UniProtKB/TrEMBL annotation:
Residue ranges of every copy of the UspA domain listed in the record: 2-142
Species annotation: Haloplanus rubicundus
Protein name: Universal stress protein
Pfam families linked to this entry: Usp (PF00582)
Length: 168
């Protein structure tokens, strides 16, 4: 089994990653994060904290930032990214994430979404398209708590491991 986490660096994506690590530790499974990066879209990257204000878009810098954010919570997690068009709509991003989940043979996908209190079909994020694929189960993380991210990070059996590899 593989647990896949769409990851954009938001608090809910971090919470979803920690939940996946919690499950993976118990079930002895691998965790793969996937980030979708719009090509050359500096404003999109700045809005998500991937670039500093005024910093020019540099794919390598964005990838490094996201990879560091993943390894801060899950050093042993595998990191993947997909480059999408500069103005790719959420549907395109979600489709790429779903394709990657299938390619990774995901058994569960952990989606951080604050809109998950509604029916899954009305999620206001990429979660809708990712969640509709029946090839895997979906865990929707709506809150940063009750998971104790810092406590889980400290107790993680993977805390000492360091991933220095990422794949596009």
């Amino acid at each position: 089994m593989t647990f896949v986490v769409p990851f954009d660096g938001s608090e809910l994506a971090e919470a979803a990653l920690v939940r996946a690590v919690e499950f993976a530790a118990v079930l002895d499974e691998r965790v793969v994060t996937v980030s979708a990066i719009p090509e050359g879209n500096a404003s999109y990257a700045r809005e998500r904290g991937w670039l500093d204000p005024g910093e020019e878009f540099d794919l390598e810098s964005v990838v490094a930032h996201l990879h560091e954010a993943v390894t801060a919570h899950a050093p042993a997690a595998e990191f993947r990214y997909e480059v999408v068009g500069r103005r790719a709509p959420p549907g395109t991003i979600a489709t790429r994430l779903r394709e990657r989940a299938r390619a990774e043979d995901a058994s569960m996908v952990f989606v951080g979404s604050e809109n998950a209190g509604r029916l899954v079909s009305s999620l206001g994020s990429v979660g809708e398209t990712v969640a509709t694929d029946d090839a895997y189960d979906v865990v929707i993380v709506r809150h940063r708590t009750p998971s104790k991210i810092e406590r889980v990070d400290d107790a993680s059996p993977f805390r000492g491991a360091k991933s220095d590899f990422y794949e596009g």
